[in-house]
Amino acid sequence: MDAIEAAFADGPAFVPYLAAGDPDYDASLEYVAALARGGADVIELGLPFSEPVAEGPTIQAAVNRSLDAGMTPDRFFAFVEELDVDVPLVCMTYYNLIYRYGGEDAERPRAFVERAAAAGIEGFVVPDLPAEEADPLREACDEFGCDLVFIVAPTTQGERLDRIMARVSGYVYVQARLGVTGAKADVSTQTGQSLDRLAEWGVPKAVGFGISSGEQAGEVVAAGADGVIVGSALVDIVAEGHEAGDDAATVAERLETKARELKEGAVAGAQRTPRPERT
Amino acid sequence: MPAIEELTDAYERYVLRNEEGFMDEFRERLREFGGRPTPLQHAERLSERYDTEVYLKREDLLHGGAHKLNNALGQVLLAKYMDKERIVAETGAGQHGTATAMAAAHLDMPCEVYMGETDINRQRPNVFRMRLNGADVTPVTAGRGTLKEAINETMRDWATTVENTHYVLGSVVGPHPFPVMVRDFQAVISEEARRQVREQTGELPDSVLACAGGGSNTMGAFAAFLDDEDVSLHAVEAGGSSLAVDEERGVAPNSASLSTGNEGVLHGARTRLLQDDDGQILESHSVSAGLDYAGVGPELAHLVESGRVRAVNVDDDAALAAFHRLSSTEGIIPALESAHALAYLERVAGPSSPATEGSSGEPRDEAHDDLGDIVIVNVSGRGDKDLETVIEETDRREIPEAPEMDVFTEGL
Ligand SMILES: Cc1ncc(COP(=O)(O)O)c(C=O)c1O
Questions:
Q1: What crossing angle do the helices spanning A248-272 and A232-244 adopt, rounded to 10°?
Q2: Model pLDDT, residue B362
Q3: A114 given a catalytic annotation
Q4: Dihedral of CA A43/A49/A52/A58: which sign?
């Protein structure tokens, strides 16, 4: 638990996402390492599910490339074990994979969390798991010292917001706009309002959905975010490299450069606006 | 699922508590626009054939040609009461899309329908009907291009537009409150059938048969009988071409999730699913587009688990044979979906079924006994949409009792 909190402790955190195994296992290992070199503070690793309903076209395609290349939960854990990065890793996946892990007789969802924690995963984001249904996973996370991140949409309110607040740890994923993932040219004006609603929450607030440049990362941090989450803009680099047939080292270099731009943008944003003390 | 709370609230107020007379208006519109009540027809030839009184609940006579209008009208009306300005829906066979497009036109709401490409190609008449009713039909190319992918895409649209848009989900699936709400709108089928069968026979039926894709006509046909412990309820799934999974291609050549699936979580509901060992959802397959879904409604799955409902299945060939049988003997061309329910009757009580073979005084198959003397079969829809599929598929296979198809296929 402490590793993720610590990652947010000094300055705004840059939290990139990649689908593990996209476009294939070996290249993906290099890409994740490149993000770490580029300044990632936490890395969200997607464990591909066949029905990625929270994702836009970019990440859907990434998920399919990874699945086609043979990604499975067990290969994902091997992937995490093989990764040589000194950054806390969060597993982003859908609940059925967690629920089914270990087969019919497994203790669900504990078996998955136990295995993930052993591989070195520090937290989970599960976009199709509502807080109402999250207690078994929350308990397993507590048992194995993992965080459980929830996504808060601009429309989330009332009791639902309270239920999330009671169960979230690590950071809260503040969805910058309604809809599904995908890089956008502008930063949503909903971001500031969304952050205000969560001002009292005792976990860092990381904003994602649509951020694609250092400039935007800066705006989001200036609006009060403790971190920025960037997925599609990075997955785009993987996809373009894959389509052009570029070698993995070249693509990794582009990812590192982009990561640096995003991290620096976030830091610049923090300097622009004095950030309130978090208690 | 950000809109879920708002929807739950609206469901409780308008549907459960009839606030602002919502349910009264719904029932009125079902009568006037929808053509309810639908008949419960005694089927003479089938009754003779199966040596049992067979009654057909004629949802094929509902406006639009399928039970789907019950739910679509309910939800579009609810969207009106919720001050939504736009409707999105997904469709498999196109029946739900058609019903939604009709209801949306009737209630003056813009409507967009997502439909898998495979299904667009096999259900063209419904695509035309949706367009004629003013809906936009958006093709979905992901996966095998069937209902599962169309649901994913509609959920994505809804997540983006939830503030002004209502998602008219087409079956008793998805997150709460959809499964119970859709059941409530479809329950009119069994409410009527229960009354009608008593009027006509003085008794309750011994059994009720309905096909099960997502399970909305199923739950609708069963709902009012659930407390009648003596009425046995059969959910007939699509056994497709085989019940075994094609591991190589990651495809289940069936959509029998109750019969062969196992527990999992999809589209916001815990239910029975066709999935691999890792929990990845399999592509399903059925000759009938409306049954072609890897999941099933959670309440139906629960009723099967508790033993109240029996899950059975018939394969593509049996469904096609039943399609032809009803068409030629009773003058009713059923939807391929509904033909599955009819095929089950043939399997357990047909003249050449194992249950009735050999007059050696052996006890009849348990399933046949279970059907009893009065059987209601829900004819969930009419088969006009399926004619092209039926002609092609019948031509490729050996379907007993089917007329020659080459006269048609020359023209295709
Ligand atoms: C006529 C008909 N029956 C049955 C179904 C299957 O749906 P459900 O299982 O929800 O009734 C469909 C779906 O399109 C249909 O068109």
A1: 160
A2: 40
A3: no
A4: positive
